[in-house]
UniProtKB/TrEMBL annotation:
InterPro entries xref list: Homeodomain-like_sf, HTH_TetR
Residue intervals of the HTH tetR-type domain: 24-85
GO molecular function: DNA binding
Species of origin: Nocardia transvalensis
Known DNA-binding region: 48-67
PROSITE patterns from the UniProt entry: HTH_TETR_2
Keyword annotations of the record: DNA-binding
Protein name, per record: AcrR family transcriptional regulator
UniProt xrefs under Pfam families: TetR_N
Length: 213
């Protein structure tokens, strides 16, 4: 039996798809404009919503259509940055051939975020999340959990009885250490990569089948 086409539904779906594309573009422009302004200002001053809207070439209505406040925008920037970092770290890990090498690649890729240019941008965004830099606490929580997912498989291959739990500990510790490098304006040395990698590997290999040391 031939089913009549839902013309009204089809039109509505096309309209929603077009609107979604428009809204996605607006959000991207707001995020990019905010990031650029924060990068330029550093921790010396915080761009206002009006500054971000003007730089994005949009209206206040467009801003508040997507974000309830500037804090919501900064939270989105942190989430967007975490996803970009996740992709970069996964790419670096994909080039490693052994579980231990993948752990080292994970550590190396994350610590690279404390490099001079990247670090300045990250500090600026975190500083804007609270006006004093304390936003790193909430930002690190989300980033640590997300980045930890990349360690589940190598930790399991290395013999961890509780790879997700161990990866969670490593993820939060790693992001906490990264935050320390960022705020102290210290660029990690190769020896830091060695020590943190060794710490992660020792922690996993020292855990027995029952999860005990």
């Amino acid at each position: 039996m031939t089913v009549p086409r839902d013309v009204a539904g089809g039109i509505a779906r096309r309209s929603l798809a077009e609107r979604e594309a428009d809204y996605t573009g607006e959000v991207r422009r707001l995020l990019d404009a905010a990031l650029e302004l924060m990068r330029a200002a550093g921790t010396a001053s915080a761009p206002r919503v009006a500054d971000i809207v003007a730089a994005a070439g949009l209206s206040n209505d467009a801003f508040y259509r997507h974000f309830r406040s500037k804090d919501a925008l900064v939270a989105a920037l942190l989430e967007d940055g975490t996803e970009r970092l996740y992709g970069y770290v996964a790419h670096r890990m994909g080039k490693a051939s052994t579980p231990a090498d993948r752990v080292r690649a994970w550590v190396t890729a994350i610590l690279l975020q404390a490099g001079t240019e990247i670090a300045a941008t990250t500090r600026a965004v975190l500083w804007n999340s609270s006006g004093s830099g304390q936003g790193v606490v909430s930002g690190a929580g989300t980033a640590g959990a997300r980045l930890a997912e990349l360690l589940h498989e190598p930790f399991a291959e290395l013999g961890s009885a509780t790879p997700e739990f161990d990866a969670s500990l490593a993820g939060h510790a790693m992001v906490g250490k990264l935050a320390e490098f960022l705020w102290r304006r210290i660029e990690p040395a190769p020896s830091d990569v060695d020590r943190i990698t060794a710490f992660c590997l020792r922690a996993v290999r020292a855990t027995g089948a029952d999860g005990r040391i």
